[in-house]
Fold these 2 entries.
Entry 1:
Amino acid sequence: MILEEYLSPASIQEALGILQSYQGQAQIIAGGTDLIPELKKQTRRVRCLVDISGVEELKKIGLDGDDIKIGAGVTHTEIASSKLIIDKFPALAKAASEVGSPQIRNIGTIGGNICSARPAADTIGPLIGYGAEVKIASDQGENWLALEELFTGPGETILKPGEILTEILIKPPIPETHSSYTKFGPRKALAVAIVSVTSVITLDPGSGKCKEARIVLGAVAPTLIRCLESEEVLVNKKITEDLAAQAGSLAAQSCQPISDIRGSAEYRREMVKILVRRALEQTMQGAEQR
């Protein structure tokens, strides 16, 4: 399949029309930080690239009532520097600040990071931790679904040809909700995570006990995963060092890491145990400082 056209629609509807006309042989591109390398390696082939980087309605961060909406075309740099995101969803701001290099963050988009569906993708963990929903548009209309329902495997989603992820919605956090994002990679910069952990904890203001917990692991399963057993063990308890360590051990048992050039499965499990404990401790330290 040889690339025939490169088109730049001015609206979502125009982009949808192009996708429909190419019947599965066109590909959306925004920043292109994942797609361009795939095209160069010929691991992906398309007849038409549909560049949505100029669609203004996809490039906004704002409030819809109390909810925060982020356009799929918003860059990682814009998310990392947004006061609204920093104040309400600090783990997402931190994750966006750790995507690739400054050049990648300046052109790479949150929608692209999601749709690439990489198990090590930085922003997906915090978004799942905060209970994000995504809007999917097609020529049949629009629908919303929970972000964690989008992924089916490494690099794979339920998106069909002709559909575009256009927007992310995050409801405002419950008072006394605290979060952290941490990842471990082979170097301090430009690192693809060997393991990443997002921790989102809501505390009871009176007792200081955990009311609700979300722990999301990246790079240790075919998709990012919630650690449900770890979350359950935290609820209705004060999060101590011992309890955080117990949650880490449960998380290590629940993941399905592979061995690859960046680390063995056994090494990843051990890092999950350590990083979950560390993420919970960081979250609680943040709660104490606020």
Entry 2:
Amino acid sequence: MYRFNGQDGRLDRSLEAAALVMESFHGYEGQFDYSIVGHSGDSPCIPFSDFGSPPKTERDRMNILKKMVAHTQFCRSGDYTLEGIAKAKQDVVGNVEDADEYVVIAISDANFRRYGISGKMVGQVVDDNMGMEQDVKTKLICLASLGEEAREIKENVGGGKVFIAQETAALPRIIREILVGIQ
């Protein structure tokens, strides 16, 4: 993300999405529990904020964003999006007790073809409940740096599970749409 950010702003959009999530849930810690986890060519699970430990201050939120940027500067290229989604599903069920809903919102630059990931593969991971009793509602936001590829993913997954954000301004609407639609 760091390498191509100057061309299409994909890292900036990811940071804005993370900031939006943190700001939106600030003050609602008793109602919502969340974590922020990254994925890169290094790992499917790079923790930035853990369940039960949301950032409390603006400084805490800014430090999370700084960690995200630092990671993108030094990580290897590659894509662990699918493994990251699968791990997030396991983590949300394993770390959040007695929840009304289990939700995973994954954000990707939708650069799947480069790594041999097909729309069918994305659909399988998004749809698979991995043998868990709990239903984990999984949504994927494609930052659409490669718009055609993101549309192909959306067509293959279907069912309102994939969203395309061509512009950063669309992220608040998409995240709101996801969260309102889950209830």
